[in-house]
Structure formats: structure tokens, C-alpha cells
Amino acid sequence: KADRELVLEAVRKDWQALQWAARPLMADREVVLEAVRQNGHALSFAADPLKADRELVLEAVRKDGHALSYAADPLKADRELVLEAVRQNGHALSFAADPLKADREVVLEAVRQNGHALSFAAD
């Protein structure tokens, strides 16, 4: 579980293998990026500093907008990143920072993907 090469190979086969990796490997950008490229939910197993890595989180939300829920709070206020997330999954609007829930373009993109996303928009 602490052998980087072994964990990287396991993650290449199945992103969920990341959850059994040793903690230092959950903080290894290359290992986590390999998992995130398969499924955005892999971000949930990443160490906190990687949840603040914009490029890595962007990759995650492109695979699954719901991955925004695992992102560090400052990234939930990143307009471009949130737009990517809601284009992939309208429900990702629920995880966006409040000012973006009031941003017409962001909300429009979210409801285009899923009409129910309107429920997450600011009043």
C-alpha cells in the first residue's frame, strides 16, 4: 500500500484502489491524477492539499461535476471551474460558492444540463 509503483498500477486498473493507498500516496499528485482521469470521485480520496490543486480539480469535475463537492472551498468560488462542473452535472451548482449560485450564466449552464438545478440557485 506504500509502494508507489504498485499503487500507480492498481489505480490505472481501478481508480477506487486509491482508497487503499498509504496516506503519502494519497498526496502524490501523479497517483491521484491517474485516478481522477478515470473518475472524478477519486478526488474524495485525495489529500487535502490536492483538493486545492486547480488543475487536478478541473480534471475531476470534467469527468464528474459532482466532484466539486470534494474541492477546497476557494475552488468552489472559481467561476471557470464551477462552469465546467455544472456543464457536466447541473446538480454541482449545489456545491458552488453562494455568489456563483446567483450568477446568471452559471445557473443557466446548470439548468441546461439538469432543470432541477434551479432549486440550487440563489433567490
Low-confidence stretches: none
Helix residue percentage: 40-55%
Q: Could you say which overall geometry the principal axes of the C-alpha atoms support?
A: elongated
Q: Report on the biggest sheet.
A: none
Strand content: under 5%
- Give helix and strand order, one letter per element, not per position: HHHHHHHH
Number of distinct beta strands: 0
- The radius of gyration computed from the alpha-carbon positions, rounded to a whole number of angstroms, is 15 Å
Q: How would you characterize this protein structure?
A:
- With 123 residues, the protein is mainly α.
- 50% of the residues lie in helices and 0% in strands.
- The protein contains eight helices and no strands.
- It has helices at 4-13, 23-26, 29-38, 54-63, 73-76, 79-88, 98-101, 104-113.
- The radius of gyration is 15 Å and the shape is elongated.
- The mean pLDDT is 97.
Please give a handful of descriptors for the protein shown.
single chain, 123 residues, mainly alpha, 0% strand, elongated
Task: Give a brief outline of the structure.
By secondary structure, the protein is mainly α. The protein has 8 helices and no strands.
What is the strand and helix layout of this fold?
Blueprint: H1 4-13, H2 23-26, H3 29-38, H4 54-63, H5 73-76, H6 79-88, H7 98-101, H8 104-113
